[in-house]
Amino acid sequence: MRAERDTSLLLVIDIQSRLAPHVAGHRQLIHRADALLAAADLLRIPKLLTEHCPAQIGPVIEPMRSRFAGGEIFEKTSFGAADHPEFVDRIRRTGRTNIVVAGMEAHVCVMQTVLGLRGHGFEVVVVADAVGSREARQLDRELALRRMEAGGCALAGTETVLFEWTGSGADPHFRAILSIVKAL
Amino acid sequence: MRAERDTSLLLVIDIQSRLAPHVAGHRQLIHRADALLAAADLLRIPKLLTEHCPAQIGPVIEPMRSRFAGGEIFEKTSFGAADHPEFVDRIRRTGRTNIVVAGMEAHVCVMQTVLGLRGHGFEVVVVADAVGSREARQLDRELALRRMEAGGCALAGTETVLFEWTGSGADPHFRAILSIVKAL
Amino acid sequence: MRAERDTSLLLVIDIQSRLAPHVAGHRQLIHRADALLAAADLLRIPKLLTEHCPAQIGPVIEPMRSRFAGGEIFEKTSFGAADHPEFVDRIRRTGRTNIVVAGMEAHVCVMQTVLGLRGHGFEVVVVADAVGSREARQLDRELALRRMEAGGCALAGTETVLFEWTGSGADPHFRAILSIVKAL
Amino acid sequence: MRAERDTSLLLVIDIQSRLAPHVAGHRQLIHRADALLAAADLLRIPKLLTEHCPAQIGPVIEPMRSRFAGGEIFEKTSFGAADHPEFVDRIRRTGRTNIVVAGMEAHVCVMQTVLGLRGHGFEVVVVADAVGSREARQLDRELALRRMEAGGCALAGTETVLFEWTGSGADPHFRAILSIVKAL
Q: How many CB atoms within 10 Å of residue B182?
């Protein structure tokens, strides 16, 4: 299974103001999520953002949140976004079948969302260097990655996904993607 | 496959007085098993405890043993509890299909029990940071984890399981689970 | 899949005089193979030994070779013993379906034999701490283990297998196996 | 699945003059690819070479490129060679079904080509110590290896493949292969 431009949707999970600072490597994680967002916009890949109980853990960080239109932001209470039927409906309406996932925490909301999406029949690519957990939960994170992999998800690095979306050195967007890659 | 509150049963294997002190990281392992037990009680998830040849390796440690009612304690002689038909019957009578496992030793009684449960058709989540082996057998432990994973079990950290059981930030038990998590 | 006493056959591959000294950790590997042999004899598990081109790399080391009867020693020229039809016949005649494998080199004769056995429909348990490769080929060894695992083999430590074969703390051989385990 | 002499084709991907020097361990990688090429020629295993946008990243390095006849060199613009139907046709015409892959970058052109080949039904052996990525992308490389493995490819070391192709200590080419192995 490959992350293809015409079938992918980029899903960014819960990068929120009171959670993000506690996640190991959060600066790089956010930088990579931003790179994926820039590429998605360039290549016209649809995107969604989840926001978990913002009254408790704050809104999605800026300027990331402002990159999304209102209809692209999904507020949730379940850790697994796909446990909300409206969320699954919203993905279904895009017609996209391959969900590329970044965000936090890898072993809680990311994993529960991803396993839920698999249960609904979606292909999932977990961008492993763009999903994070708190420093004390790195074993939980590593096990969650293995578990998502065992559940049929692909694990990939950010650059790997960017080149999958691009597909060809002859693509008109190749130069622009290359400059995103070089800034990783 | 996810550890869900309504389908899970918590199984704690052989944390006994003459074995536990020899297991690497046994204090943390016991602390995590206790956290799982507290959450199971809170969320009304049924639980079982196995005790292997207590005349030889001592009873299950206290106060853990006292948390279980008589009918929740299963004394066994086979390393694999599921090799005793009465044990499988006892699980079957709960109606639970997803067995969440903690205890010791990971590569002996835990692994043999887990592979036996898989053979009987149960789903199994192995709580990887709450199953241990003696210091000299850490390779056996790691291989047993891989083997249980290859056999279709999920591997997960304790916190990961607690948040799967909780499911939602809006759950009435969320605050209580959060304080268990914070004490991990 | 479990290594059971009634279905297992112990297969020891190519522990030969001019090869063994070059294999990383060969002393421990030989000690573990000897422990498996002692347990197999105790539990009446049949065993086979392969010897690869002994004119070139010497006979199987002593006293290991003398533990085997003439009909239990198979001389081969193919790296994969199961590429010799007579070898497969010899296993078939034992009625055993679960082949427990130790020996060397992990990434050459062990792997080719094991993949061949899988192709003939046998279950295989690779005793990971009792198969070795030359020091410079530890990556080849690790990849061969992963590949055998991906091919449906179980990987297990020596102690893990000994307790699988024993099955129960009430087994009449339990004490004898325990003293083999303690000497590992 | 095994790399057999009669079904294998050796595919070398994009070892080009402006890319190779940036790849971690490129000297050893090239040395191993050369060893595979020498063995392929000796054992009459067909081979193919890809060259990605040579105007941009330079031709395949010499003397490697000169080992290939014109019809064995495939110039491509897609990262995944198998996204070019003529490339798949060219492999199909050889009648070979097991593609043994070396080259660079592991997480871009190698991975996209390999996943494409899998999609077309070929068996693939990825020579893990003969595929590389840039130093800063070692996590992408490791994840790409796992992903190809999860996609049904075998991962193997160079020496492992050489002994699979050879098959037997009695093969007339055994001595010649052994000297290639000794120079690894």
A: 8
Residue B26 to residue B32: CA distance in whole angstroms: 10
Report the C-alpha gap between D100 and D123 in whole angstroms. 9
CA nearest to D129, candidates C97, C142, A166: C142
Please name the residues between 47 and 66 in chain A that touch chain B, using a CB distance below 8 Å.
52-53, 56
Mean pLDDT by runs of 10 across the 184 residues of chain D is 96 98 98 98 98 97 97 98 98 98 98 98 98 98 98 98 98 97 95
Q: What DSSP element (H or E) covers B99? A: strand B98-104
B vs A contact (3+ beta-carbon pairs below 8 A) = yes
Q: What's the pTM value of the predicted model, to 2 decimals?
A: 0.96
CB contact under 8 A, B170 and A140: no
Amino acid at A176: A
* pLDDT of amino acid B1: 87
> Is the pLDDT score of A1 beyond 90?
no
**B181 and C CB contact within 8 Å:** no
Nearest CA in chain A to D109: A163
Closest chain D residue to A170 measured between Cα atoms?
D77
Put simply, whether A149 touches D (Cβ < 8 Å) is: yes
Sheet containing A73-76: order of strands: A73-76, A47-52, A8-13, A98-104, A123-132, A154-156
CB contacts under 8 A, D 103-142 vs A, are: 107-108, 111-112, 115-116, 137, 139-140
DSSP B21: G
Q: How far apart are CA C107 and CA C132, in angstroms?
A: 8
Supply φ then ψ for residue D151, to 5 degrees: -85, 10
Q: What is the pLDDT of residues A121-144, one digit of tens each?
A: 999 999 999 999 999 999 999 999
Q: Is C69 exposed, middle or buried (0-12, 13-18, 19+ CB in 10 A)?
A: exposed
Minimal-distance CA residue of chain C relative to B75: C169
